[in-house]
Structure of DNA-binding protein:
Amino acid sequence: MSSNNSSSKVVTVDEQAFEQAGEQAVDEGRFPVVDETPEFEATVEQETQAKVDANHPEGIADTSGDRIHGATLAQEERIRAREEELERISAQAELGQQDGRAWRTRQKVEEMRRDERTGTQVDPRAKLDQETLAEVNQYAQRLADDVDSSYTRAVIAKRIASRILEGAELVDAVLDTKDEMLNEAGMIVPIGKLEEIDRGEVSVEGRIIELWEPACPSQQQVGLIEDDSGRTKLTSWEASRAPWIKDSERVRIRGAAKNWYEGRVSLAITGWTTIHFPERGRWWNA
């Protein structure tokens, strides 16, 4: 049996490429082929900026597709933060009156009513120290005197104490309780506070200080009503069939519709409005 002693040299692709790299290509006529592809070189400004971006802590380090073209990382972070802030503002605007005190007020009104009806809840005043309890009772008496409400001082004090136990400061607890009382339907609201009331219908009491000729036939009377806190425009519509109100007369109006006049809140007497004339001693249901 014969054997063939043959040897072969295995050349890798990388080695072939390395060997060919030193050889110059020639054409069919054995003339060297010159590569006419232009070689791109960075300008001095581009090289300088590249060094700044590469070495500065705020330079561009990320080249992913989510990057903002032409912005450094610091600039991009500020842009992203501003966009997130605008989104938060937009979301808060959509919530409208659901934010802040108005939202807390609506959540508490029904609870306040239940407390008064049942009387079964543990009295939160019992958990306050004597000094805080004395202050709570003083503020509760002020609210009972200032706000035309059916709630007694004891019920108001319970609401203030309950808020304090939930973590509110005394002043905030008092203000939230006052807002809660003012926002309850049927409660007499100071005219100067009308813009803060989150209801479409309100009740006010004041004196008519001026009446003028209506601008259109559908209006029966137009004038100004005033109390100690402010004044506002009052319109009585013909369709409401409301009684005529005299100049300088004191009236108590329940269920007046809130409108806006020249950027300020105004009131309208509608078919659902109830009017009381304290100086006449009689009620009138519009």
User: Anything to note?
Assistant: The domain at 191-285 is CATH 2.40.50.140 (OB fold (Dihydrolipoamide Acetyltransferase, E2P)). Residues 192 and 229 are 5 Å apart (CA to CA). DSSP finds seven helices and seven strands in the chain. The longest strand covers residues 201-212.
